[in-house]
Amino acid sequence: MTATLSPGAWPALVLNADYRPLSYYPLSVWAWQDAIKAVFLDRVNIVEYYERQVSSATFQMRLPSVVSLKTFIRPSRQPAFTRFNVFLRDRFTCQYCDSREDLTFDHVIPRSRGGQTTWENVVAACSPCNLRKGSLMPEAAHMVPRQKPYQPSVFDLHQNGRHFPPNYLHDSWMDYLYWDTELDP
């Protein structure tokens, strides 16, 4: 059976050489075309397949659903300081009111008072809380973050990412994503 697939369909979960995902959030996936290219370049091992296949005049192949890299990629020790990573560290929740809507980030010690744009001084905040706090110090605004801002490790971000599963999870991926979580009795 020849498959007609849209570019975003049939993604392959990408595992490091130790069979752990390269990233949990965003989940490490490749389009099926990239996975097949990596197979032909001998950069990955196919671990699991979809039932779908692609073919040409001289070739036929089931689409890989899980691939593992042949070469181990050492994860970065320190995650990049980005807006997304701040939100992930704070679990996409305003650190003042627990809202998950209209997120931005807030300088706990305002920049106008010498606050730096660093892990230790920036938290996720919804726009209403950010406006309410303005350039006041936390105590003056009666708005102290629920969690003291800190520089997360890659492990911290991976752990938090597990709380936000992607919209698409193929059954063949489950053994590789959540093998180290506590099982139900």
From TrEMBL:
Entry keyword Cell membrane:
no
Q: What residues does the HNH nuclease domain cover?
A: 81-131
Stated name of the protein: 5-methylcytosine-specific restriction endonuclease McrA
Q: Which GO terms describe its molecular function?
A: endonuclease activity; nucleic acid binding; zinc ion binding
Q: Is Zinc-finger tagged as a keyword?
A: no
Leader sequence residues: none
UniProt keyword list: Endonuclease, Hydrolase, Nuclease
Q: Which Pfam family, any one of them, does this sequence belong to?
A: HNH
Q: What is the protein's species of origin?
A: Ancylobacter polymorphus
